């Protein structure tokens, strides 16, 4: 196991003398070559957790072991074993992407030629080469973020931590970025991906944990988390116009409408009845189309985190 987090609690002392429990008894592990997603709302405790893994913040209680040694005892070692793309905007100033990335590569012990080759490869894969020599102050937000992503990957440690890597990045380059991350894991590097983007995480991660008010609301593979929370299906129909009325049905557990789009949640046992109804409506020309699918990770995420207070834990 690359990372072993045991019962971590982090309490901040607020300036108003109250205490904030940012992480509340968190336990999980990450294997070699695994992409682990850390999902959760604003203030859920994600950044707090990764700073403790990197040894830049000390836990109030619990233990973290990285590559066989305690992070608390050897924080410097932890920092060199991890590469971080921070959430906060990194100010490049007048540095160009090429200068920032090659400087980081050399600081992390890379040779000049090796750093240059890897930098060229990353810039090409992310299609940002034409900005390689543009001053940071003249770069767009997305290119600045991709530059910081390259800084994290130029001489990657055993564990790469990406805190919201795709914010501001366009859909095409997001795909390039995911390809680069997946390739990185082929040679055994592990990745923690911190994100709010549940749809993207569903495709990208091997396992995930959902943080809610400092506690894990669920952890496991995507299908495990979904199955443990619900076996329900979603029937989605598109009405002909936003002015059409939709029908409520006994076979539907809940109905959500957004414009002409209606989503029925249903149990497995109601699937054939629901499909029969949808087929009939389609043949009659009352609806444009329909689709049946398992609940998405986003549905499950909303269901788990809509609750107030502590989470109902789901171990997978
Ligand atoms: N240095 C600090 N002192 C006091 N409280 C803090 C400190 N840093 C974070 N917190 C609090 O700890 C909680 C968790 O914060 P954290 O930054 O870990 O959340 P997050 O999940 O990363 O949120 P976001 O998605 O918005 O980045 C929040 O309530 C936050 O206000
Ligand atoms: Mg954060």
What would you say about this model in short?
Helix content is 34%, strand content 29%.
Describe the structure.
This protein has 316 residues and is an alpha/beta fold. It has two domains: 3-227, P-loop containing nucleotide triphosphate hydrolases (Rossmann fold, 3-Layer(aba) Sandwich); 231-294, Alpha-Beta Plaits (2-Layer Sandwich), CATH 3.30.70. Helix content is 34%, strand content 29%. The chain is built from ten helices and 15 strands. The strands form three sheets. The protein has a seven-stranded mixed β-sheet with strand order 6-7-8-3-9-10-15, with helices on both faces. Strands 2-1-4-5 form a four-stranded antiparallel β-sheet, covered by helices on one side. The protein has a four-stranded antiparallel β-sheet with strand order 12-13-11-14, with helices on one face. Strand 7, helix 6 (171-186) and strand 8 form a beta-alpha-beta unit. The longest helix is centred in the middle third of the chain and has 16 residues, at 171-186. The two termini are 18 Å apart. The structure holds adenosine-5'-triphosphate and magnesium ion (MG).
